[in-house]
Amino acid sequence: MQGGGAAVERVFREEYGRLIASLVRRFGDIDLAEDAAGEALVVALEKWPSDGVPPNPGGWLTTTATNRAIDRIRREGQRDAKHQAALMTYDDTAHSPVGVVEDDRLRLLFTCCHPALAPEARIALTLRLLGGLTVAEIAEAFLVPETTMAQRITRAKKKIAAANVPYRVPSAADLPARLGGVLTVLFLVFNEGYLASGDGDPVRAELTGEAIRLTRVLAVLLPDEPEVKGLLALMLLTEARRSARVRSGVLVPLDEQDRGGWDRALIAEGHALVRECLAINRPGRYQLLAAINAVHTDAPTAADTDWSQVVALYDQLVLVDPSPIVALNRAVAVAELDGPSVGLALVDRLPLEGYHPWHAVRADLLRRLGRSAEAKDAYAAAISSTANVAERAYLARKRGELV
User: Fold this and answer.
1) What is the mean pLDDT of residues 181-190?
2) Residue 17's pLDDT is what?
3) Residue 222 vs residues 8, 18, 174, 397: alpha-carbon distances, Å
4) Cα–Cα distances in Å, from 191 out to 141, 208, 262?
5) What is the Cα–Cα distance from 17 to 61, expressed in whole angstroms?
6) Which of 357, 375, 356 has its CA nearest to residue 367?
7) With the C-alpha atoms ordered 184, 187, 193, 199, is the resulting torsion angle positive or negative?
8) Under DSSP, is residue 286 helix (H, G, I), strand (E, B) or coil?
9) Does the pLDDT of residue 87 top 70, yes or no?
10) Is 0.85 surpassed by the pTM of this model?
């Protein structure tokens, strides 16, 4: 799209989540909502380039899409009780970017992330219905054929209909458990962008950006949930380092990054959110991970990192999330504080032989201990178990430096 068409595309992407959520609430039909939104886009492409973008583009799109949905119901004679109710409650009140529409997006987010759906389906639906990404864009991001992603999304929508997945925010009693699933989906989207799999770009900024945008929405909708703030802080503090993370196609580890290239505005925002979480004093997994990143981004140089504080935060995190992956990350911090031999002893007892960072950490610790032959084997295992091209290049370089 060029000129006015580009403006339409930008506005449509920004408003898509609100639009779909509003239509799903009214009609209870995801397919109808998507079709009506698509028809509204066609009308906008016809009118806006010559007439200009309306003062309330979201309201214009919602009214147009609602009219198109009602026309389709009437044409096809599909007047079941749900659609009939939608017709009876129809009005042309202008769309507003606040209030009930925001609640609609929250309902849709919990629907997309319902535990009845497979994890990969939750990610795809969230990006499609709330992020406004096309099926082709989602397929490209996750390195699967477009037909495969289309089938995945179609199956998920059918599952929602067949299982009568409710379009609502969970009750107060159920919210903590269900919120965890939503945060997991958003974090997985972010991680796929930050350390992308496959042979494409090693970092996918469109995915990290989309994850941050959706998490910002969730933080506005659930301002009293500290884990949402914690996840947003974690994403911002991680994203702040993105431009310094890959150089000439090779991954640059944290201790070698040019800290002058970090985004200080994102770091300041992330630190402020961490302080808000500390004031709430209900620590959780994402808050603690964000606090660890705050320590790293607060240090002017790698040598200035307060590793004792990092280890103390990992000690708290182990109590919240006693997984071997958390234990691995804690071992890395312990190695900085107490030496590589102590860290290696912790790493070697973890059941993570199939997890490529385990091999990478072992390789680095063995290298620091002067055990070059073992380090080479560990680097080779790490290289063979990761698909990220920048990470593979970094590991190969480190292996090549060994005598």
Assistant:
1) 88
2) 84
3) 30, 16, 14, 45
4) 12, 7, 18
5) 12
6) 375
7) negative
8) helix
9) no
10) no
Q: How many residues does the chain have?
A: 403
Tally Cβ neighbours within 10 Å of residue 25: 19
Q: What is the pLDDT of residue 358?
A: 96
Residue percentage of the chain with pLDDT more than 90: 49
Rounded to the nearest 5°, which phi and psi values hold at 35? Answer: -65, -45
Q: Which of 59-73, 88-102, 227-241, 255-269 has the lowest mean pLDDT?
A: 88-102
How far apart, in whole angstroms, are the C-alpha atoms of residue 18 and residue 323? 37
Mean pLDDT, rounded, for 190-215 = 74
pLDDT at 210: 83
**Alpha-carbon distance values, 366 to 243, 306, 388 (Å):** 29, 23, 23
The C-alpha angle 187, 188, 191, rounded to 5 degrees, equals 85
Residues 99-157: pLDDT tens digits? 333 568 888 888 888 888 988 898 889 888 887 888 887 887 777 899 999 999 999 99
* 250 DSSP 8-state letter: E
Token readout for 34 is 């998507």
Phi and psi at 48, nearest 5°, equal -65, -40
Structure tokens at 53: 């973008």
pLDDT of residue 7: 73
> 65: which residues sit within 8 A by CB, 6+ positions away?
19, 23, 33, 36, 37, 39, 40
Chain CA centroid to CA 226, Å: 17
d(CA 274, CA 234): 9
What is the spatial distance between Cα 360 and Cα 329, in angstroms, rounded to a whole number? 12
CA distance 175 to 156: 22
Identify the helix (H) or strand (E) that includes residue 398.
helix 389-400
CA distances for 72 relative to 7, 43, 146, 194, 254, angstroms: 27, 15, 27, 41, 55
Q: Locate tokens 């239509």: which residue? A: 23
